[in-house]
Write a structure and sequence with these properties.
The protein has 383 residues and is of the alpha+beta class. Helix content is 53%, strand content 15%. Helix 8 runs antiparallel to helix 9. The longest helix is centred in the middle third of the chain and has 37 residues.
Length: 383
């Protein structure tokens, strides 16, 4: 892996950084406190090519690769984690549709996502009784002539109330376990798709999270994504890539927390000298920087492997596991080093701390990541 960025990667990173600093960061606190979904920002992200970084230009993508996408995610997340998670899910949905769709589906749905016409995408896999265990899924899809009829409910759906394109999993047969699952594309506003209440969350408060209910929700038969019965495979492919996005998000939030802490400890006086001059804070910030750098390298390695067509399941889980837990540690130390000011709204580290907490839960919990890493490691040493 070449640690030097290409011209394209640098351009994408710098474009995202400029947009994040000028347009996203100044509004992040307001978005968080007032729970405002930043719809207008996604139109601009689309214009910059950031809703399809790894997709071909013919479908509206930037065609810049997975490493560039990871770098862009880090920049947006450093400004506003809520904006970055919607960006991540939109990229994930667009990539999944592109990978398994017919040409007609690509032309219709991928371009809606990359152009911002759909505003954002949503990924509807989890259910009230089926989170880490998709085999427990109860949502059904029944073929009736030239349509599919969906019934059931989904839980914890990021951007569900705003998404113009939703990738939905449902059971299409009574085969045991994961074998009977299929994947569908459902457009926002489809009759029978009911949007639930917005969840009042601890963090990511401007990221819309809702339940979705399907009551005889009828879609055309040609909105089946991939082959019938192969939905579990599609979910695993999407989640592998999605974990790179969340690892990138964690790195961005942690970097923002560290930068805020450096600024604060240089400015804050205690015992007639800056807090940054004391050994304990300096050692704490040194540890924060080491952990952040390690997480960035793990994340970019996973992105590079995906980009070059090599196996990356284990590396994506390693990056997601370490980066998400690192972000929680770094944000915790950032609050501690701010003292009482770290606990109030006036300083951003309290928001970073709240936003980081969910990163060890969604896109597969830390416990699930350890299961994946162990499974893939045992395969490696058995070969």
């Amino acid at each position: 892996m070449n640690l030097e960025l290409t011209e394209t990667q640098t351009l994408i990173r710098d474009t995202a950084r400029k947009f994040a600093k000028e347009k996203v960061a100044p509004q992040a606190r307001t978005f968080d406190r007032e729970e405002i979904f930043p719809t207008a920002l996604f139109k601009e992200l689309a214009e910059l090519g950031l809703l399809g970084v790894n997709l071909p230009a013919r479908y509206g993508g930037a065609e810049a690769g997975v490493v560039a996408y990871s770098l862009a995610m880090m920049e947006i997340a450093a400004a506003c984690a809520s904006t970055s998670v919607a960006m991540s899910v939109t990229n994930m949905c667009a990539e999944l549709i592109h990978a398994f769709a017919t040409e007609a589906q690509r032309e219709r749905f991928v371009t809606k996502l990359t152009s911002g016409e759909a505003v954002v995408g949503a990924f509807a896999l989890s259910e009230p009784h089926a989170g880490s265990d998709p085999a427990a899924m109860r949502t059904t899809a029944v073929r009736k002539g030239d349509t599919w009829v969906l019934n059931g409910s989904k839980q914890w759906i990021t951007s569900g109330a705003h998404a113009g394109v939703i990738v939905v999993w449902a059971r299409t047969s009574q085969q045991p376990g994961n074998k009977g699952l299929s994947c569908f594309i459902v457009e926002g506003g489809t009759k029978g798709l009911i949007i639930g209440k917005h969840e009042d969350k601890m963090g990511l408060r401007s990221s819309n999270t809702v339940s979705l209910t399907f009551e005889d929700c009828t879609i055309p038969a040609d909105q089946l994504l991939g082959k019938e019965g192969e939905g579990f495979k599609l979910a695993m492919v999407a989640l592998d890539g999605g974990r790179i996005g969340i690892a990138s998000q964690a790195c961005g939030v942690a970097r923002a927390a560290l930068e805020a802490t450096v600024r604060y400890t240089k400015d804050r006086q205690a015992f007639k000298q800056p807090v940054a001059e004391f050994q304990v804070p300096r050692f704490m910030m040194a540890d924060m920087k080491v952990q952040l750098s390690a997480a960035e390298l793990l994340t970019l390695r996973a992105a590079y492997l995906k980009e070059t067509g090599k196996p990356f399941t284990r590396e994506a889980s390693m990056a997601k596991l370490y980066a998400s837990e690192m972000a929680n540690r770094v944000c915790d130390k950032a609050v501690q080093l701010h003292g009482g000011y770290g606990y109030i709204d006036e300083f951003p580290v309290e928001r970073y701390f709240r936003d980081a907490r969910v990163q060890t839960i969604y896109e597969g919990t830390s416990e699930v990541q350890r299961m994946v890493i162990a499974r893939e490691t045992l395969k490696l040493f058995n070969s």
